[in-house]
Specification:
Elements lengths: L1 H37 L6 H18 L1 H18 L2 H7 L4 H4 L1 H37 L6 E4 L2 E8 L2 E10 L5 E11 L4 E13 L2 E5 L2 E4 L10 E2 L4 E4 L4 H6 L12 H11 L4 H28 L8 H27 L5 H25 L1
Antiparallel strand pairs: 1-2, 2-3, 3-4, 4-5, 5-6, 5-7, 6-9, 7-8
Length: about 375
Amino acid sequence: MTLSLYIARRFLGSVGRVFLAFFVILLLIDMIEQLRRFSDAGVGLAGAARLSLLSVPETLYRILPLILILGAIANFLGLARSSELVVVRAAGRSALRFLVTPLVVSVGLGLLAVAFFNPLVAATSKAHDDARSQLSQGGRSVLSVADTGLWLRQGSGEGQTVIQAARSNLDGTELFGVTFLGFDQDGRPTRRIEAETAKLVEGAWELTGTKTWDLTSANPELTAVKAAGPIALPSDLTPERIRDSFGTPSAIGFWDLPGYIADLERAGFSAQAYKLWYQMELALPMLMAAMVLVAAGFTMRHVRFGGTGRMVLFALLAGFGFYFLRNFAQALGDSGQIPILLAAWSPPVAAVMLSLGLLLHLEEG
């Protein structure tokens, strides 16, 4: 037990130092970028640091597997150079048994990352996007999905219009069971339009089955008008703006993903990317363990054998290879070319099996 605690402490220390180094480097790089981008908006050093602190966690979360393999390589090399690996083997503990502690720690780190770090990253990413939108005066997202349906927002010189629909087609350009609520520049409601369908054409919504209320009149119901045919409502929205408003699946916290997926499907959108991201998050602890096994397969050897630099290079190439294989599988899964479960789980499973095969060959072969 004492030896396992010592190994766990050494492993956590190595990973923690690598994590801290990446955090500082990314923070400095991002601060320079924020200063360059928002210098015209009057953002100073403190403002850039605040924006960077909100932006960097997302990048760190995405490269966690790479941070882990670098920490594992540093840990195993340190143990080999101090001859502690030789002492452990001489005490009768095999390499595979020695690896149990780092594997347990890596899986624990993966679980903590998914359960706690992921929601934190989603919150900081949203705060960063809101702050950046205010500085660039680009406005917030025009689209929101909730259990009440689909919500859109559009603007014009006369004011804002809020759109609520029960459901839509896959890209949000055709809505069903729609309500348009118009506001003037002072935020007072001016009119309400209910339509059976609304189709986005160039520069306007084409509405069918409409009924319009003038909310500025004393009795809106008495002045309500039903249109016999289609009517056009001017709009500044485009299919690209609606699509871009979805953002990325990583902007949704892990615990909120199942509900968000259900809301998307209820509203008529495709939730393929969000389902894939959810499965990839579930597979993250296995990927973290695979990175430890990859590092161990190449670097958990005595330095007297020579070729340490070459083995470290092989470990890095293998780790980066599995990481990019995961991203490639994600792209295939997003496009629907391979099943979601295959895209999410095949890279970590392949990494575990191949690295275990290498370890067994070196230890037992």
